Amino acid sequence: MFTHKRADFGDDFIFGTATASYQIEGGQTDGRGPSIWDSFSATPGNTHNGDTGRVACDHYNRWPEDLDLLADGGFDAYRFSFSWPRLIPEGTGARNEKGFDFYDRLIDGMLERNIKPYATLYHWDLPSALQDKGGWMNRDIAGWLADYAVEVNKRFGDRLAATATINEPWCVAFLSHMLGVHAPGYRDLRAAARASHHVLFAHGTAINALRAEGAKNLGIVLNFESAQGATGKSEDLAAAHLWDGIFNRWYLDGVFKGQYPADVLEKGFGPYMPEGFEDDMATVSTPLDWLGVNYYTRGLYEADATRTIFPLKKVDGPLEKTEMGWEIFPEGLEEILTRISADYTGIPLIVTENGMAEIEGTDDPRRIAYYDAHLGAVLAAQKRGADVRGYFGWSLLDNFEWAEGYAKRFGLVHVDYETQKRTPKKSYEAFKTLLTGANQSQVA
Ligand code: IFM
Predict the structure, then answer these.
(1) Three-state SS for 391?
(2) Whose CA is closest to 415, among 69, 1, 106, 32?
(3) 108 membership: H or E segment, kind and range
(4) Which residues fall within 8 angstroms of residue 6, CB to CB, at 6 or more apart?
(5) Which atom of ligand 1 is nearest to the CA of 355?
(6) Distance from Cα 401 to the centre of ligand 1, integer Å
(7) Residue-wise pLDDT tens digits, 276-312
(8) Which residue's CA is the closest to the ligand 1 atom numbered 10?
(9) What would the CATH number be for the domain defined by 6-442?
(10) How confident is the model at residue 439, as a pLDDT?
(11) DSSP-derived secondary structure for 18-64
């Protein structure tokens, strides 16, 4: 069980869990259009075991059971994402009414169970038709995202507690266009520089379009890594600082200061940026109501002079690791929450993702310890002045972990992918005890 009490976090603090459409829904039916993850995962070699999200957790059909798990666990909120290709199969133009009906049922199901809907517009399942036009490399994506955002808001906006534009723009841009690990799988500096700007320009354009419609409580979800030098040598500390620029400051400086970090432009992106990007920075930095903070781990970096672009490399660290191979470093969460509130913004912060992959099973003491330590980091950051208003565990269910397929399990609830049976893990019980005082699941 956790060592913290619910009351420690403050009266209005929100606890929830998070998921994403492609990772859990399946249900590639009823008029849903193709997404970049359908073709990327169908391409041999891109995902572990050739796994795809075709069925995933069958949440498209089993959502009532999944919402019951949230309600029974005492969670206040559920962070989910809309599937753009389910709503607008070609990305622009004709709507798929069956897709709109699905999210009507899902959102009403949350409200009936007294669960606040926290929505994300884009969690990586880009309609393939938009990729055919260049996807995030095409500046027009700002208008495509804004139009889609307005359609979503018109139908669902009055029932949403909060809306985020993009989940983890670093992954959308760098991981997917520079490192080639996620769809569309590019390894190209120009593609990455353009995507890195367009993802934030599209975010700001969508926020402005939503505001014009009267939408409230709008934000973005950024992911953060605590970047540290592999040694205390000045070149390694400089390498860590540059990675901090690539991973953290690009997004923080863009969204809150309206400029990109000079070191990241100078050491890589500068010559490849879209012409006149500076003129977009007021849109990129349009004011927000809240910021989502996703945090999992730290990274150790050393200088690598053999690389002409971004001359650094990651090295293996000595700390205990999760099944993803990620070091467990709760201090990093305290550090990033404190840093954001001291250096960037006073808007409310919400930890929108935090959690760990663990070996299969429902007895998961390491996950309980991970959550306990990171909840402690939230409390420590609050004490140091960070205005943290909520915490969402990743994830409600074991699910499709992108390039890692189904091999990596982040769920508070175990999913048997043969039968789709859900079984709450001990970590779910720990949250339930924290949130309700009860120590036995009614669901198991
Ligand atoms: O599963 C992902 C999620 O989609 C985005 N944030 C990180 C999680 C774990 O890798």
Answers:
(1) strand
(2) 69
(3) helix 97-112
(4) 13, 15, 434, 435
(5) 9
(6) 7
(7) 999 999 999 999 999 999 999 999 999 999 999 999 9
(8) 401
(9) 3.20.20.80
(10) 58
(11) E--HHHH-----TTPPPBHHHHHHHSTTSSGGG--SSSTT-HHHHHH
